[in-house]
Specification:
Elements lengths: L4 E11 L29 E2 L1 H20 L6 H6 L5 H7 L50 H6 L1 E2 L4 E2 L3 E3 L2 E10 L2 E6 L1 H6 L13 E7 L9 E4 L2 E11 L14 E3 L2 H9 L3 E8 L6 E11 L5 E10 L10 H11 L19 E3 L11 E4 L1
Parallel strand pairs: 7-11, 8-11
Antiparallel strand pairs: 1-14, 1-15, 1-16, 2-6, 3-4, 5-14, 6-7, 6-14, 8-10, 9-10, 12-13
The structure holds zinc ion.
Zinc ion (ZN) binds next to helix 4.
């Protein structure tokens, strides 16, 4: 499979609200609604499956709202000569003078895209060419091809894979103001720890927690923990993040305590359930929820497979990245995870994802 090329992009995001991705039903200590954590490190995260599900929805939302009035009628598509449905879709024209250009929205399969191309496929037992007004996932549009679909006669696992979004910088209140806590392992995993031999302008002076108790007058509190530190120069490539966190306020803590610091500084909120009939608080309905605080910076990866040279029905990676770029704005309004109606979940994707804008790129074949 030499022609199958995978492109890997690093993505960074920042929580604009506290983010709550519930585990559904566990109680830890005083907290009723607990959040998803990495099973080994116990550090909270946003699972890749959550990212894939929301981004699929936002892509379909962006697509359908822009092409709806230009989509040809289903009857007309069916009447076109062609050996299969994909060929018919390529042959028929868009309505109302829609200009396809090279934009991802003009992809031929999008002529039957619908909002039902996201969420659970409610009609998976249809064949992919048995298109009716209501067929669950259509199996032809760029959303179905990129994120995957499963119909009776054909399944496709999709062309985009999302890693978990892991915490990279975590805001903690200290007596010196808000600081951004991270560890060497987190920086290494995100690929932004540069060698110590780097140019001096790449170096930052950080608070480095030392763990030594003697000969050190300087202490910093991270939440309730009181820890000795030294000022230490470290090579970190943070050009992308400099508008979002203060580079003079980074605290590097040892890998073995980062989880404890994050877990003891999560946002914990108490809410009350409202009885929908009386409009008053339900008795005994007070509950607490934990969440990843506003400002937290996450790091993850997106992998996109380009099989368009092997199969002309598949979208190219350029189109897929354009789709992700154009739909990422919905994270800033609709958010991710639970309790988005209670002021949780808005997130900003900081990385530019389309090819033209570059971004962190690393191509492998
Ligand atoms: Zn579709």
């Amino acid at each position: 499979m030499n022609q199958e090329i995978v492109t890997i992009k690093n993505i960074y995001s920042q929580a604009m609200d506290p983010i709550y991705i519930g585990t559904g039903g566990y109680t830890i200590g005083m907290v009723d609604n607990t959040i998803v954590r990495d099973p080994i490190t116990k550090i909270p995260k946003i699972p890749g499956s959550t990212v894939a599900g929301t981004w699929r929805y936002y892509s379909a939302l962006e697509l359908v709202s822009s092409v709806k009035e230009y989509q040809p009628d289903l009857k007309e598509i069916k009447s076109v000569e062609g050996k299969n449905f994909s060929e018919k879709l390529r042959k028929i024209n868009w309505k109302n003078g829609f200009r396809e250009e090279n934009n991802w929205k003009g992809y031929a399969g999008n002529k039957i895209a619908r909002i039902k191309c996201t969420g659970q496929d409610d009609l998976p037992n249809k064949n992919v060419d048995e298109i009716e007004e209501d067929t669950g996932h259509c199996g032809h549009c760029i959303v179905c091809k990129s994120f995957g679909f499963s119909k009776k006669d054909i399944s496709s696992q999709g062309l985009i894979f999302f890693s978990d979004l892991n915490i990279l910088f975590f805001p903690v209140f200290t007596r010196f103001g808000t600081k951004w806590v991270t560890s060497e392992r987190l920086l290494k995993e995100a690929g932004i720890l540069t060698s110590s031999q780097g140019k001096s302008e790449d170096k930052l002076v950080c608070y480095k927690i030392t763990g030594e108790k003697d000969n050190n007058e300087k202490y910093i509190n991270l939440g309730w923990m009181y820890l000795p530190y030294e000022a230490k120069e470290i090579g970190i490539n943070l050009s992308l993040l400099e508008n979002y966190i203060s580079l003079n306020d980074i605290v590097i803590v040892p890998d073995h305590i980062i989880s404890q610091i994050i877990n003891s500084n999560l946002e914990v909120r108490t809410s009350v359930s409202i009885d929908p009939i009386t409009g008053a608080a339900k008795e005994g309905a007070l509950f607490t929820s934990e969440a990843i605080p506003r400002g937290t910076i996450f790091y993850g990866e997106i992998r996109v497979f380009d099989r368009s040279k092997l199969n002309e029905d598949l979208p190219s990676k350029e189109k897929i990245f354009e789709m992700l770029e154009d739909s990422k704005k919905y994270y800033e309004t609709l958010g991710v995870g639970g309790m988005t109606t209670r002021g949780f979940g808005r997130m900003r994707i900081l990385t530019e994802l389309d090819e033209k804008n570059g971004g962190d790129k690393n191509e492998k074949s």
